Amino acid sequence: MTPNHQVERAAQILRAGGLVAFPTETVYGLGADASNNSALLNIYRVKQRPTGHPLIVHLADAQMLHRYARDIPDTAWRLADLFWPGPMTLILKASRETSRVLTGGQETVGLRVPSHPVARSLLSAFNAGIAAPSANRFGRISPTRAEHVAEELGDDVDLVLDGGCCEVGLESTIVDLSTNHTRILRPGGVTRSQIEAVTGELSSDTAGNLPRVPGSHASHYAPFTPLTVVSPQVLKQQLLDCADSQARIAVVSAHPQPHSFRGAAWKMMPTTCREYGKQLFATLRELDRLRCEKIIVESPPLTPEWDAVNDRLARAAG
Ligand code: TXA
Ligand code: MG
Question: Are 11 and 73 in contact (CB under 8 A)?
Fold first, then answer.
């Protein structure tokens, strides 16, 4: 785990306008001082992300919402009470003081209180908001281990705090409370039904056509190797086809590799959505390194608790 002096050093780097990657319970974030525009621009540059795509601000506690948001609805406080610290981001109307570099020029801001102990100590040492997108280049898979960040960003980041494997492994659930029409923009660790227990039933239009949410771009979370998600029946057929053609393929499945088929890099996944979600991104990175012709993923169940996993798989396939 990260020793205290490392956290102090990280806070100093942030104060000086540098970039620090840090673990959260969802994925690793690429952090900068949320009030320092040149540091924020540096995040966009390092991520190679268009500046119109807003960053999430990480806070030590919900009371800090007042600094960044205005006209905070009652629903926000109720959701915060229940799910913070934790894997949920709220989109609220931005306060006047909030940097428009941070919000991608919009009048709304994304805010979240993470639960990872290292993120929490960093936030309390820094004592102000830390802007942090996932610590990957634009359009690539989010990092769930410190090594992933180091591999992908190298010297572009001043310090990487190592907090081990991320517990959730998929990015936070994003709830848009900035209009009268509450929506879930991205499914994540907090499920739709948990959110609806507070907000009442929500319409099921998600981020699909919201250009301001990079996660909504079809190419997002993509490995370099072409990836498809198929039913168990189609998987069987494709295994037979590949055996004939001698193609090098990788398979992600909840089942063990069949004895009759040994010609693939086979990743057997857990059967619970929690464990599956935790391992998914690391698994895709590992298989991507093998440079197979394709990655075939056997479709997990299509039930609501698998929404976040299926969402990321669909984007990886896009
Ligand atoms: O779990 C997470 O949310 C991770 C960790 C590091 O906290 N962060 C993360 O950040 O996934 P990022 O930038 O990779 O994705 C944040 C998403 C983006 O799709 C962004 O467009 C959206 O949140 N977002 C941020 N502010 C927004 C706003 N004001 N309106 C709409 N979408 C917003
Ligand atoms: Mg991201």
Answer: no
